[in-house]
Amino acid sequence: MRADQVTGPHAHHGEGPVWDAGWGGLRFVDMLAGDILTADLSTGGVERLHVGEVAAAFRPRTSGGMVVAIERGFALVGADGSVDRLPELWTDHGVRMNEGGCDPQGRFYCGSMAYSSTKGAGTVYRLDQDRTVSVVLADVTISNGLAWSPDHTLAYYIDTPTGRVDAFDHYPETGLVVDSRRPVVEIPGEWGGPDGMTVDAEGYLWVAMWGGSAVRRFAPDGTLDGVVEVPGAEQVTACTFGGADLDELFVTTSRQGLTDGEQPDAGAVFSVRPGVRGLPALPYAG
To answer: Which of 139, 195, 245, 265 is catalytic?
Structure first.
């Protein structure tokens, strides 16, 4: 399958797409610009909302608006676009938030990384409904995709340099069970680095391949099941299902590190209808 371009190359480092009917469709981040972009798929244009130095990951809130991971912590964005920053979690300006998502109980997880990708400098944090924050997983490097199985019993996680997707047991009361971590997908280096990820209604994993010009679909047992080519954009960052029937896969891309004129479509959003449906975005309950 091949994805088609549906927006202009508006993002320098496009990431973290989320579809929510409550806000009218597709949003994604221009991460290092600190902006959340709302896509107009009829024109290919976008509207920007600036939320901080970094806009790493976000999800809808059950009370309206969004929860957002910004450079060194979390923020709550009102339906009117107002930004309420919560206390910073660390002071090291060499480390930033990168990617995350909500669990079925409405707790928001996001992992960090060093700007220099220093090994072990990242941490996965959890923001609970009462705004308390806890450390879930330490000693990660490029904390990336996080998604849940359709029955909510498993959480899938990517730390990009490992070249894997790992699974954790998940329980409603406690969340991720760190000691249950085990690999479920091994990704050859020639395919690129695993980046963002989503799970479809059949329980299959869709993994964006940084440097691989593709999204790859894997069965829960780790078997490669399909490939979506993303022409003209090598740095594929993340993906999500959207549309009225959640049957369209939207894919974000990046032009980070590229020179002017190189891969001119990088930074655009692409889409494809792969013949399966996705799952609704899990919201933050705080």
So the answer is: 195
